[in-house]
What does this fold into?
Amino acid sequence: MNLKKQYNTLFYMKEIFDQLSANCSRLTTKLYSTSFSYGIYFLGKELRQPIHSIYGFVRLADEIVDSFHHYDKNFLLEKFKEDTFEAINLGISLNPILNSFQRVVNQYQIDQELIVLFLRSMEMDLSMQEYTPELYNEYILGSAEVVGLMCLKVFTDGSDADYEQLKPYAMKLGSAFQKVNFLRDVKADHQTLNRNYFPNVNLALFCDRQKKEIEEEIEAEFEMALTGIKQLPTASRNGVYLSYIYYKKLFAKIKRLSAEKVMTERIRISNTRKVGLMFGSIIRNKLNVI
It folds into this structure.
């Protein structure tokens, strides 16, 4: 085999591994989140795989701290952190999810500080149960806002000016999504994981007044985020808007319930309803009435 043919063969084999890695990230998104899967599907075709790759990375880290109860979570998260930065620096990983993620980080020049902040928030889940306002803001920044910024790097595709302009809105959207998740999962977080993210709130005495204060904060963030969604490039706007609509509908459902009720059940939107929201958001986007 001549050298050129040998090189082409090796390059093709690497492409197969990269495709396997991409498929793992896409399957992870599909298995864990139908809502984000729908949203990603309505992004421009060239944006879908990079966002799947970011979601796969985030999901894997989240599983370590939330699900692997019979294993040494601290060790696993530290190993995951080391493997993440090794993958980025080497440009490859034998972990398909990390291999997929590092390609996106390197291609779109995602600031590694965003990844550091995200992993820091995962570490907080292993050691903290009660949050002060300062720690709450730090956790929101790392667990949600920086994930929005990673995605924004993909959406703006190298335009620093667009990234800086849309940065505050992406952070508010990530924050709103996370706080809705907190309300949706408050029962499991409190009873199963012994966590309480809301500062100055005793969940054993969680009341409607406290719930309303949290909801007003979320409402303001959603309002600001929508301003930014309208300014997104066409290729990303529809998918992001669909995710926004889904979370707004979930939030509306939570708002209709009492504090006592959200402490006793996990609120969700049915897949049938999600499909309806999907088509509604597409129509509004096409008519430019978002």
Remarks:
- The chain has one domain: 3-286.
